[in-house]
Amino acid sequence: MTLRTLKALMLRLGFWLLVAVLMVYAIFPFYYAVVTSLKPSSELFEVSYWVDSLDLANYATVLSQPTFLAAIRNSVIVAVSVVIIALLLGLTAAWALGRVRFRGRTTVMMTVLGVSMFPQVAVLSGLFEVIRTLDLYNSPGGLILSYTIFTLPFTVWILTTFMRQLPDELEEAAIVDGASPWVTLTKVFMPLLWPAMATTGLLAFIAAWNEFLFALTFTLTDSQRTVPVAIALISGGSQYELPWGPIMAASVIVTVPLVVLVVIFQRRIVSGLTAGAVKG
Amino acid sequence: MITRQRAATADVAGDTRDAAPLERQADSLHRERGTRVRRRRVRAAWLFLAPMLVVLAAVAGWPLVRTFWFSMTDASLASLEGAQFIGFENYLVFDNGWYGIMADPLWWQSVWNTLYFTVVSVALEAMLGVIVALVLNARFRGRTLVRAAVLIPWAIPTVVSAKIWAWMLNDQFGIINHVLLGLGLIDAPLSWTADASLSMWAVIIVDVWKATPFVALLVLAALQMLPSDCYEAAKVDGIHPVRVFFRVTLPLIMPALLVAIIFRALDALRVFDVIYVLTSNASSTMTMSIYARQQLVEFQDVGYGSAASTLLFLIIALITVVYLYLGRRQLGGGS
């Protein structure tokens, strides 16, 4: 074996080692959560790397708690409503920003970008007042309203980017036929924008599903909590006796749908993230 | 689109130069119709923008103004309406000694913690992100699988990843201590989240794990758009790959990396969830967001808490402006 082939072999080995380390680093924590969630509580405090026994007691514990089920219901309601609102408002705004030239367009774009850079805490007390005035405190409505602050800006940006990529001829034909902007948007653009809408909808769903600060601050009772807050507030007899088994089971339950979505729509998500960022 | 349509009308005008007056009249009618369509489109554009602008004003603009206002009052959570104007007393006031946020050592510590957390975690994410992107950009079997796997940490809710890592970093039963003890790297279990000197690192570990995929994806997108010819030239010239990376690749992906860095930095400066779940309100990891929320909600002091929020907003705005200015200048000078 010559020195050159040895070197090439070492390089190849090093590369595959790097890939392996990367895979373990990315997957292991979630894998370990799954392993922990499937352990009986008596074995919880012995470290093990494999699932020895399939014990579903932790899942039974979590799923028999009405507060956790309520949290899942609330999270679904909030996330789905946020996606619908963000797409609806985002799509009309994206048509205006992407297809029409008018004075003040850049200002609007910059305002939207500025809002996406807001620290959420900066509006916390003002938003609290708005939500209380509208009588939405401690209800999903308050969260749906407040979540538009971070879903709307990126929805508008990404949809505008995609809207600009569509050819002009489409719309010209519609204008010659005397179609109104609304008809053009719904009949011409929407069918073509489905992929982009799926991407942004997915990103908005993930963002709403994962949000914590507003959900923690704008809800008060267990029946109105969302999933992240419910998990964060699971507690045991004392600070040092956290029920790790049920916590891990709850974590797995709320994360599996997201992981499945991400693995299936990997390409779409990547294109959405880069479209939003490159223009930003 | 509009310009193109105008060009079309101009063509028509060119063709009909020698035509009868009647047709010329038709042409001017056509042009008039063009501007009318255009005007109608602009009006429709504002109409279509209105719902989004109204919602953003309600959830962002107005609350921001109200937060500024509250920061100059003695408002409390129980009586928002009865708030009295007190000027800058929440920020800094002299009353036989300095009082207010800027005289609070804990606030200064939270500022320092936030900056430390931001610089360290974003630097690590940028470095790891570039490495991960380079790996994913190589051609190998199973690349799609690895790419999907790398996305997983990004998809997991922050609260959940904080909980999972809290369990892995558990001082008595955590797998990290188990592994480190097994390898002989430490003599006694470390209490990652309770020990003041370690807890910031625990937070950074979780954040880097969660956010590196985002940086990697943006850099990967830039890598895939690089021209292959300069690499072939470098290969022919026998230039060392490491040198090629620093001389060719890195400068070319720099714009994407800078975008990723500012996105991450803005996120890190307002960090809340990871820290709230991992270490709660401990002073060793208290950031500006944690500080402001504690004042607002737990101590119910809306005036003081709003002042802390406002300072966070101003600091982030300042850093953004400086970064954009420096970034633009550097990019301008480089090209």
Automatic annotation (TrEMBL), chain A:
Could you confirm whether the keyword Membrane appears in this record? yes
Its membrane topology is listed as: Multi-pass membrane protein
Residue span of the signal peptide, if any? none
- Coiled-coil stretches noted in the UniProt entry, renumbered to this chain: none
* Protein location: Cell membrane
Q: Which GO terms describe its cellular component?
A: plasma membrane
A Gene Ontology BP annotation from the UniProt entry: transmembrane transport
Keyword list (alphabetical) reads: Cell membrane, Membrane, Transmembrane, Transmembrane helix, Transport
- Transmembrane regions: 12-34, 76-97, 109-131, 143-162, 188-209, 244-265
Give residue ranges for domain ABC transmembrane type-1. 72-265
Which Pfam families does the record match to this protein? BPD_transp_1
Q: Which InterPro entries match?
A: BP-dep_ABC_trans_perm (IPR050901), MetI-like (IPR000515), MetI-like_sf (IPR035906)
Describe the family membership recorded for this protein in Swiss-Prot or TrEMBL: Belongs to the binding-protein-dependent transport system permease family. MalFG subfamily.
**What is the protein's given name?**
Carbohydrate ABC transporter membrane protein 2 (CUT1 family)
Organism of origin: Kushneria sinocarnis
UniProtKB/TrEMBL annotation, chain B:
GO CC terms in record: plasma membrane
Where does it mainly reside? Answer: membrane
Q: Report which superkingdom the organism of origin falls in.
A: Bacteria
Name the residues that span the membrane.
44-65, 115-136, 148-169, 201-224, 244-263, 304-326
Which SUPFAM superfamilies does the entry mention?
MetI-like
Q: How does it sit in the membrane?
A: Multi-pass membrane protein
Kindly list the biological process annotations in GO that this record carries: transmembrane transport
Residues annotated as domain ABC transmembrane type-1 = 111-323
Membership in a protein family:
Belongs to the binding-protein-dependent transport system permease family.
Protein's recorded name: Carbohydrate ABC transporter membrane protein 1 (CUT1 family)
